[in-house]
Amino acid sequence: MDQKKIGRFIGEMRRERELTQEALAERLGVSGRTVSRWETGRNMPDYSVLKELCDALGVSVNELLEGERIERDRRAEESERQIIGILKDYKRLKRQRQIALTVLIALGVLTAAVLTRAAVWAGLFTLARSGPRDERSGIEAFDKAYYRATYGGDLDSDLSVFPDGDLSRLIEPTFFSSLKTGLFDTDGCILLRAGFGEEDFQAELRRLGAIRKTVVQGEQTWTNEIRYDEDSYPKPAFVAVDGFGSTWEYALVDRDAREIVYVWLAYPSEDDPVYAGFLKRDRGVYSGGSRTEAFSLYNHSFDGGKTWAEFDD
Prior knowledge:
Blueprint: H1 3-16, H2 21-28, H3 32-39, H4 47-57, H5 61-66, H6 75-89, H7 97-106, H8 117-130, E1 133-137, H9 144-151, E2 171-180, E3 188-195, H10 198-209, E4 212-217, E5 220-225, E6 227-229, E7 237-242, E8 247-254, E9 259-266, E10 295-296, E11 299-300, E12 309-310
Antiparallel strand pairs: 1-2, 2-3, 3-9, 4-5, 6-7, 7-8, 7-10, 8-9, 11-12
């Protein structure tokens, strides 16, 4: 499955229908930025909107997942090939692939001779949403480069608030992360708590306060600065992402204890005991869905919110 090709095809079909990204997004009940991520190949549309997306673009599910128009006499051949392709894709869900295949066969999903790839996705959808998860703990497991390389654009973040360089300066650090892997958007948490000596603490506050990201689109540029929020979180916070795309990234600062808690969350649960103590005071923000009007250090719209450009390191 070629996500870049699929993305280009979505963009071509949208423009052919004379739809803006925002108009298509409104029809599907998603953000304009979500459509942008599909068209750049960073993300695949969720199965829950796949059929509605195809209807809006005037294409078949087969054509969407192939990334091109398919002649009628090629459809059976393409369907068989796509079944093989999606099962290969699903091998990334290593711990559940045998269970998934057994379930699919039991449901009769593989019995139709001209079945589309989307039908197989229907069987995989529930399993992909629930697991497996990549869980890591201990400061030796913290590696920003790993998360960037493994999860890429799904993080909606560059993890800029998290510390760089020599971690031996951290006092009694604790680290935990749990991220969903598989075919759909990443969700979960990355948490790092650490104390500092006085000199290192002041240096870290200066680093956090100086974080900036420049977003470029063609000849246009925009620079975002990290936000400092003393009211919304349980401690004063340097905020990089505040709900944009259902993602949060921030650093909670305890000046008296010289301690900082670094937090990244995607689609958080309000009552998860792992990070409940680090959430915003207003828990209602976590049930409002993806919001493009929310702040992100890494994004900017140059056309009043119709499309969103991303920081690209």
